[in-house]
Design brief:
Porin, 27 strands, 49% strand
């Protein structure tokens, strides 16, 4: 019989919390690095040899290998360095230079909370977690004062999303069971169910002059669109398998993609050029449609020796993972404002009393993402009963092709060495620390190759194909390429975790 101690009730309270709807949690954006300090230190691996509650996220088939009952609190702290020098804009009517653009936001925290329990049933364990994707969720390309981002109207990145505050949270419950296949041979199966919530704000400058075509770009003609409280709630999950044969470990897990269809409100700051006609939105709603990629993880690992701190754990282990993510589903973000623009400074129609209106076409914010592959390797060695050392590395292909390079979510080629350590403390506590540096090669988007255009929602050249009769260049959006120039990017990620086994 399990004795109902205060710790028992605390664990069950956590499990109930993890199944409840969440209003927000800090996470989101493009995934970079990996959740939990130990996995980050080991190159982002985790599908094969995770023996703590984070198995709910990496591979629920590993839950039966977690010990007794555990609590885990981990958080990544990400810092994004992004620099963009837009190329000079030269047209028949103007020659304009731009100041360099860089991310102004500092450290971004991305927490992860999980628990696991064996329930006293042999070879069965369950777990619960509250987390978001490992990511950087609030870049600012403007001026930042007291936490408020003020984008620059004539800035070099204004035709892209210049401010984002993206919050994604998942509340998950998983279970895993292992079948004996003979002496020291096991097959584990697991399933995690989760609810995912997105809550985001973003800002972008759009050209507010109807019929604008390629070659015209004037900050004084641009409206500032601020979308707020865009929310959506969707079910998701993770399925996994694990195989153990003596020191050999194999694992695979799959997470399906999520289609976001968020609803929020919008505020438009129209330019001074339209003050005389008093433009006013008839509806302040906005809808956003996009995808969050699914992922397939599979890997191999090996364990050797007995750890000085715990003979049930290996002294040395090595893990290699390959991860595929289907980001090619994200061709664009579709943002639709269902309201029209009324020009209330113009006298209404004498018979109907209606003001002159301008229809707003949906904005297709081009992404052009492609699927990514990453190769990850990590290892750990138990130095003594107080300390375990970790190291790893990651190589990842880009989600953003060069011609679609943007400031909002940064996903180029990535090369990431990582290190870390676990301190084994009294009372069955463990403190994990990790650091990863994520490098990307510099990029140059050459003149004539940029595929990111400033939005023109009043133009009749409609997306997503831009091939209508009103399009001056079929297949090409109205406006000008915004991303031509030179780019530099890198991340730093610090992570810390505290786990308790009881």
């Amino acid at each position: 019989m399990i004795r109902r101690t205060p710790v028992f009730w605390a664990v069950n309270a956590l499990l109930l919390l993890a199944t409840a709807p969440l209003s927000s949690a800090l996470a989101g954006g493009f995934e970079v690095g990996e959740n939990t300090a130990r996995s980050l230190a080991r190159g982002g691996t985790g599908v094969v040899q995770q023996d703590d509650p984070s198995a709910v996220y990496f591979n629920p088939a590993l839950l039966p290998w977690t010990s007794d009952r555990q609590l885990l609190l981990s958080s990544n702290f990400l810092q994004l360095h992004l620099d963009f020098q837009r190329a000079d804009l030269v047209t028949s009517s103007e020659d304009r230079s731009f100041d360099p653009v860089e991310n102004q936001t500092g450290i971004f925290p991305a927490p992860f909370l999980a628990a696991s329990i064996d329930l006293g049933i042999e070879n069965l364990a369950i777990g619960a977690a509250v987390y978001g994707p490992p990511a950087f969720g609030n870049p600012c390309y403007g001026t930042l004062e007291s936490g408020d981002c003020s984008p620059i109207r004539d800035g070099g990145a204004r035709g892209m999303i210049v401010e984002t505050d993206l919050l994604v949270a998942k509340a998950a419950v998983g279970a895993g069971y292992r079948f004996s296949l003979g002496e020291d041979r096991w097959l584990g199966v697991g399933l995690t169910g989760a609810m995912a919530r997105m809550d985001t704000d973003f800002s972008v400058f759009v050209n507010s002059i109807p019929g604008t075509s390629t070659g015209r770009e004037n900050p004084n003609d641009e409206a500032f669109v601020q979308a707020s409280n865009l929310t959506d709630l969707k079910p998701t999950g993770i399925a996994g398998l694990s195989y153990v044969d003596g020191p050999l470990r194999l694992g695979i897990s799959y997470r399906p993609p999520i289609r976001w269809t968020a609803t929020g409100t919008v505020d438009v700051d129209f330019p001074a050029a339209l003050e005389g006609v008093d433009p006013t939105l008839t509806d302040d709603a906005i809808f956003l449609e996009t995808w969050h990629a699914g992922s397939l993880r599979f890997g191999w690992g090996i364990q050797v020796g007995a750890h000085p701190a715990d003979p049930e754990r290996p002294r040395f282990d090595l893990e290699v993972n390959a991860v595929w993510e289907n980001w090619s589903m994200v061709e664009h973000f579709r943002a639709e404002i269902p309201g029209d623009v009324e020009f209330r400074g113009i006298p209404p129609h004498p018979e109907t009393g209606e003001y002159e209106r301008q229809v707003l076409e949906p904005m297709y914010l081009a992404k052009g993402y492609q699927d990514t592959w990453s190769l990850r390797m990590g290892m750990s060695y138990g130095i003594n009963s107080f300390l375990t050392a970790h190291a790893g590395g990651l190589l990842e292909t880009p989600a953003q092709p060069r011609t679609y390079t943007k400031v909002d979510f940064v996903s180029w080629e990535r090369y990431s060495p990582s290190v870390g350590a676990s301190l084994h403390l009294p009372m069955d506590l463990n403190l994990d620390l990790a650091y990863a540096a994520v490098f990307s090669p510099d990029r140059v988007v050459a003149e004539g190759t940029g595929r990111v255009y400033n939005p023109v929602p009043m133009s009749t050249c409609r997306g997503p194909d831009f091939d209508g009769a009103s399009c001056s260049s079929p297949g090409t959006p109205p406006g000008n390429p915004q991303n031509e120039g030179s780019w530099q990017s890198r991340f730093q990620i610090f992570s810390a975790a505290l786990s308790w086994q009881f």
